[in-house]
Amino acid sequence: MTDDPTADDSAGDGAAEDGHERPRTPAENAQLALLLDVAGTPKPGNVDRARDLPDLRFEHFLAGAVGSGEGLRRAESGAPVGLAFERAVEGMRHQSGGNTQFGCLLLLVPLVRAAAAGELSSAGVTRVVESTTVADAADFYRAFEHVDVAVGDPPADAAALDVRRGSDAIPALRERGTTLYDVMAASEGDGNAEEWTDGFSRTFRTAAAILDDDGPVPDRVARAFVGLLADWEDSLVRTNHGPEAAAEVRRRAAEARGDPERVAELADEFVAEGVNPGTTADVVCAATFVALERGVEV
Predict the structure, then answer these.
(1) Of the N and C termini of the chain, which has fewer Cβ atoms inside 10 Å?
(2) How many CA atoms lie within 13 A of 275 on its CB side?
(3) Number of domains in the chain
(4) Distance of alpha carbon 278 from alpha carbon 266, whole angstroms
(5) By the 8 A CB rule, do 266 and 253 touch?
(6) How far apart are the C-alpha atoms of 93 and 156, rounded to whole Å?
(7) CATH number assigned to the domain comprising residue 46
(8) Structural domain harbouring 266
(9) What is the pLDDT of residues 106-145, one digit of tens each?
C-alpha cells in the first residue's frame, strides 16, 4: 500500500496484490460493501443490525443491496454511469422501505467502473465521472422517479434542473448540454456531489482507515463512520435539520469517538431525535468497497 490513500493499490485483470485470483468481482464487492455497511453497529442515527428507524428496517437494506446487483454488474461491464446507476436504484427499490441506498449507489457505480478498468484511484474515478454525458444526467434524473430522495432546493436560476422534477427536467438538461458531472458540480453543499468533484477524497481516506484498523470488518466500518462524522458535517443532516444541527451532530460525534459505550448511547439518542447522518453512511459504504478491493479480508 502506498502512503497516498487515493493512489491505485489495486491490481488489474482480477488479480489481487499477492497474485492470486480475487475472490469477488467489483460488482460483488460493491454489494458486499452495502451489506457490511448496514451490518456495522453502532452507527449513530442510521439503521444497523441492532437498530431500526420508524420507517426503515435492517431487512430493507439487505433487500436493497441484493436488488442493486443488476445495475452494479452493468457498471462493471462498462455501461454508461447514468444507466448503471438508474438500474441499480430501480432494483434497490423493490422492498417496502423506500430509499435505502440511493446515495451509496451514486458513489459506488463510478467506483465499480474504475475498479473494473484497473483504475481504482482518485485519478481513475475522476476520469470516469468527468467523462459522463447528458444522457447520463438524464438517467440520473429518471432515478429520482423510483424513490423519494431528500435534497435541498436548487439555485433560483436552476429551477428547471431541480432533480425532483425527474424526467420532466430532461429537456432542460439537453437544451443546456448539462452532463452528470455538471449536475454534481452545481450541487453546492451536497456531500456526495462533493465526492464526485473532489476525487472521492473522503472515500479513499476512510478506506485507508478501515484497512489500517483491525477486527471484524463491520466493527471497523462502524468506527470509521463515527470518525468521519466527527470530522465532517453531514450534508443530509444539514438539509433536514439546518446547519446548526449539523455542527452539533459533528460535535457530539467527536466527543463520543473512541468511547464505545458513549457511541452506543449516541446511536440511541440520534434515533430518538430523528437525526440521520445518511451522507456519512454513503461515504463509508463507498470506502468499504475500496477497502474490499484493496484486500481487506472478510
Answers:
(1) N
(2) 29
(3) 1
(4) 15
(5) yes
(6) 31
(7) 1.10.4200.10
(8) 26-293
(9) 999 999 999 999 999 999 999 999 999 999 999 999 999 9
